[in-house]
Amino acid sequence: MQRLILIIALSLPAVAWADSDSFSIGADQWALPRSGSALLHLPPFSAAVQDWVTHPGARIVIVHAGSDQANLWAGELSDWLVALGVPSNQIDKRVSGDQSEDSITLLVEH
Predict the structure, then answer these.
(1) Are 46 and 40 in contact (CB under 8 A)?
(2) What pairing do the DSSP bridges indicate for beta strands 59-64 and 91-95?
(3) pLDDT tens for residues 79-109?
(4) Alpha-carbon distance 38 to 32, whole Å?
(5) Which CATH class is domain 2-109?
(6) 12 pLDDT more than 50
């Protein structure tokens, strides 16, 4: 089942980003009702998963502000990644003072 979800993610249209390894999700995007299907249609999320899938051994790093709310957001995002097939040992969370409170960044480190 998890592989099927990743295959579906790969079939979604790719999104071009200036930095192909960095994908930002805004609070307004995250505030929408969430489900596995909805997240796979969220362009930054699906682009990060696509990037991760195409680079074996890559890690997904969730970069967030240091507040309690940002930490909860990062934890929920990590849980969704695991639910959709990304092994938890390939996901890290990192606090950054440069990260805005109203966004979270997914880095795919090769």
Answers:
(1) yes
(2) parallel
(3) 999 999 999 999 999 999 999 999 999 999 9
(4) 9
(5) alpha beta
(6) no
Structure tokens at 43: 């362009």
> Residue 82 — φ and ψ, nearest 5°?
-65, -45
pLDDT score of 21? 83
Distance between CA 110 and CA 106 in Å, rounded?
13
Radius of gyration of the chain (CA): 13
Which tokens go with 21? 């390894």
Domain residue spans of the chain: 2-109
SS (H, E, C) the chain: CHHHHHHHHHHCCCCCCCCCCEEEEEHHHHCCCCCHHHHHCCHHHHHHHHHHHCCCCCEEEEEECCCHHHHHHHHHHHHHHHHCCCCHHHEEEEECCCCCCCEEEEEEEC
Note the pTM of the prediction, 2 decimals. Answer: 0.82
Query: In the numeric block, which tokens belong to residue 55?
Result: 């680079």
